[in-house]
Amino acid sequence: MKILRWQYTLFILPALLIMLIFFAYPVILIFYFSFLDYSIVRHTKEFIGLANYIKILQSNLFAQTAYNTFIWVLISTLLPLLLALVAALLTYERFLGYSIFRGLFSLPMIFIPSSTAILWALMYSEPFGLVNHLMDLLNLPRQIWLANPSTVLPAVSIANAWYGTPMSYLMILAGLESLSTEVLEASEVDGASYWQKVRYVILPMVYPVILLVGLLRLIDVIRSFALIWIMTQGGPGTASTTLPVATFKVSFLQYDYGIGSAWGVINVVITLIISIFILRRQRV
Amino acid sequence: MKFNSIKTLLIIILIIGLLSWALFPIFYSLIISLSGFELPTKFGFPKEITLSNYIEALKDKEVWNAAWNSVLIGFGATFISIFTSIPAAYAFSRSNNKLSNFLLYLFLFFRLFPWVALAFPIFYLMARFRLVDTYWGVSISHSVWIIPTSIWYLKGFFDMAPLELEESALVDGANPIQVLTRVVLPLVVPGLIAVSILAFIASYTEYLYSLILTRTHTTTLPVLMAGYLSEFKVEWRKISAISILSSIPMILFYSYTLSFMKRGTLTGVIKG
Questions:
Q1: Are B229 and A118 a contacting pair at CB < 8 A?
Q2: Does the pLDDT at position B155 exceed 80?
Q3: Is B55 on the interface with A (CB under 8 A)?
Q4: Considering its fold, how many domains does chain A have in total?
Q5: Which domains does chain B show, CATH number per domain?
Q6: Distance between A277 CA and the closest CA of chain B, angstroms
Q7: Residue A201 belongs to a domain with what CATH number?
Q8: Nearest CB to A171: which of B87, B88, B270?
């Protein structure tokens, strides 16, 4: 069916209008604010050029935040990917009760981020947390995981990895199940062992899917805010402050909207460069 | 495939390991939510099992209020995003020119944007429009992020609907709006339900925008629950019960959506 231009415009208009007012305009605003010295505390709102950016890029917080974001993304992307791959390969073997396994292994998905934060804050808590009970069993010292600067970042990243594993698992499983079975059967006829089959047939065939799932996860994780904010608020100190947390903290806790917006722009630039680079390579 | 005992043992160990990873946090919070006054300070089961934490959570007015707010805002966000996405997705599906392709990819680009960067400007705008702490304000802020995804999913469903019916309806003298509402929409009802559920889930789980746009009147469940963790004395038993209860709607939704999405969208996403 041919759609005429006025009809087309009419159909798209409502969605476009919302996106223009509540997305495009805020994007313009954030660039504008980032050039201002704009703070409720100091009662200022004046143009200062690039001073906010220079201030951020020279601060210790920026280096710390970049490092934290890297660790956070690394753990919460690779760990779910690895576990999801092992689980998907297992499920693909159709062992007895595999559908029950699939349901149970996907269960973390049903929690909302706030519940996940509570579940894992409980796991890490002292003296009631399960993680510390396990430390007792292993004869290791108990830790206050979320209040210790050297353990807080791995701790919240692992919680995030737990939350993200089911989605990666279901996607990799869908990829595995869409493979053609002929090649697999041929390799079995040729007498390949299970490990040879996985190593030389399944993994190369499913590799593009694994890569895509990992990269999509990376794009999600680098922007994610809720879990880390609820569990630690970026603390103790700045030990778990990632890029989104820093952006939020400066605007809504220090009420410094100029610097906060500059953080936002840096956040946007970094996220979009990585995402577009990834999507280009993948041609999604 | 041949089974031998070593391989079977390995598989069993792997299954137990993976399931412990996925289930221990859930299982542990279930135990805490069922335990009596004394919480376990070392490995083991609590001395007393009781449902009183759940009863206490369900008696809490604050919790009911937040849950009701979450549902209202979720319906609002679903309503706004579905009713704007349907015509837009239909137009994208039935036209193939440069402008429409550009706009379609622009909507994909919105999806990649870091939400947190726009938190302050959105708050600023909502304050200007006097929409802070109102149901519509929070719903709109959620739907901004739901609309792009909904359009992409719905476009996929519209692409699959056969064109012949529409053409014959047009020949019979129907206008494009009638074609969309009377002929095309009935064909994609299952897809429409799935997309609506995904929209509702997205709003139900959303935290950041609910946090900055709600005060006392429209506090949603995720914001209320997150607040419990920063209290001076954390009541683990009650908040564990609430986190278990808050996932009940998600179980209902996912069981429908997953069975529907398994063949369609999920593999569609992967095949690109």
A1: yes
A2: yes
A3: no
A4: 1
A5: 1-50 (no CATH), 52-271 (1.10.3720.10)
A6: 12
A7: 1.10.3720.10
A8: B270
Angle between the N-to-C axes of helices A152-177 and A203-222, in degrees from 0 to 180, rounded to the nearest 10: 140
The SS3 of residue A193 is coil
Interface TM-score (ipTM) > 0.90: no
Which structural domain, as residue segments, surrounds residue A87? 58-282
On whether any CB of chain B is under 8 Å from the CB of A34, the answer is: no
**Structure-model confidence comparison of residues B231 and A162, the more confident one:** A162
3-state secondary structure at position B136: helix
**What is the nearest CA distance from B32 to chain A, expressed in angstroms?**
9
| Low pLDDT (below 50) residues in chain A | 1, 284
Which has the minimum average pLDDT: A165-169, A192-196, B184-188, B201-205? A192-196
Nearest beta carbon to residue A260 from set B120, B222, B223: B120
| Residue A223 domain flag | yes
A20 assigned to some structural domain: no
pLDDT in tens, B23-57: 999 999 998 998 887 777 777 777 788 888 899 89
DSSP state string for chain B: ----HHHHHHHHHHHHHHHHHHHHHHHHHHHHHHB-SSPPSSSS--S-B-SHHHHHHHH-HHHHHHHHHHHHHHHHHHHHHHHHHHHHHHHHHH--SHHHHHHHHHHHHHHHS-GGGGHHHHHHHHHHTT-TTSHHHHHHHHHHHHHHHHHHHHHHHHHHS-HHHHHHHHHTT--HHHIIIIIIHHHTHHHHHHHHHHHHHHHHH--HHHHHH--SSS--HHHHHHHHHTSSS--HHHHHHHHHHHTHHHHHHHHHHHHHHTTTHHHHHHH-
Mutate to test the interface with A, among B215, B239, B270, B271 (most CBs of A within 10 A): B270
Query: For position A83, what pLDDT does the model report?
Result: 95
Q: Where does the pLDDT of residue B272 fall: very low under 50, low under 70, confident under 90, or very high at 90 and above?
A: very low
Residue A22 within any structural domain of the chain? no
Tokens at A131, concatenated: 């993680």
Confidence band of B206 (pLDDT split at 50, 70, 90): very high
In this structure, the number of other CB atoms found within 10 A of the CB of residue B268 comes to 13
Whether residue A201 is contained in a domain is answered as: yes
Q: Which residue carries 């208009």 as its tokens? A: A13
Angle, helices B248-261/B189-205, rounded to nearest 10 degrees: 140
CA distance B44 to B29: 13
Q: Do B140 and A22 touch (CB under 8 A)?
A: yes
Q: Is B32 helix (H, G, I), strand (E, B) or coil?
A: helix
